[in-house]
């Protein structure tokens, strides 16, 4: 086993222990709400009602234990800086589309129809600032692809 896989296993194990130990406290996590928009190359504006995951506690909780998401709703994770991001679906029973977005609003990757309850790592593939999670398959239904852009500035809740 090489050093990279040992480090990855250690990181995943540490995250699992953190989430397990903080599960009761995380059930009380509150998310501010707002709206964001994407513009397609055809000039269409797509709006989505989101919960904002701005703090480490909010990002750790995410959409865990939610059985479904209504259309045009989701959760936007703001990492506060541009960096590589990995996510997973542990404790998330609904399939999601994960839309990875850089600091300029460019969609760099869409991980479509992620596997519910999976501990497999989903990577942004390149440094990003934001990740948007919506119902699995909904990105395609809305016409979101890597040519659409997130409208900035976001007007994040304070």
TrEMBL record:
InterPro entries according to UniProt: DUF192 (IPR003795), Saro_0823-like_sf (IPR038695)
Taxonomy of the source species: Bacteria, Pseudomonadati, Pseudomonadota, Alphaproteobacteria, Hyphomicrobiales
Protein name as it appears in the record: DUF192 domain-containing protein
């Amino acid at each position: 086993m090489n050093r990279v896989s040992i480090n990855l296993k250690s990181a995943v194990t540490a995250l699992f222990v953190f989430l397990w130990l903080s599960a009761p406290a995380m059930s009380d996590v509150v998310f501010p709400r707002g709206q964001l928009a994407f513009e397609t190359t055809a000039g269409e504006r797509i709006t989505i009602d989101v919960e904002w995951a701005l703090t480490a506690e909010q990002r750790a909780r995410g959409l865990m234990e939610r059985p479904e998401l209504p259309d045009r709703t989701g959760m936007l994770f703001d990492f506060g800086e541009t960096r590589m991001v990995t996510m997973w679906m542990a404790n998330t029973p609904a399939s999601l589309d994960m839309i990875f977005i850089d600091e300029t609003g460019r969609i760099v990757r869409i991980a479509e129809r992620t596997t519910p309850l999976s501990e497999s790592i989903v990577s942004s593939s390149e440094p990003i600032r934001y990740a948007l999670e919506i119902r699995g398959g909904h990105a395609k239904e809305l016409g979101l692809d890597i040519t659409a852009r997130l409208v900035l500035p976001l007007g994040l809740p304070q």
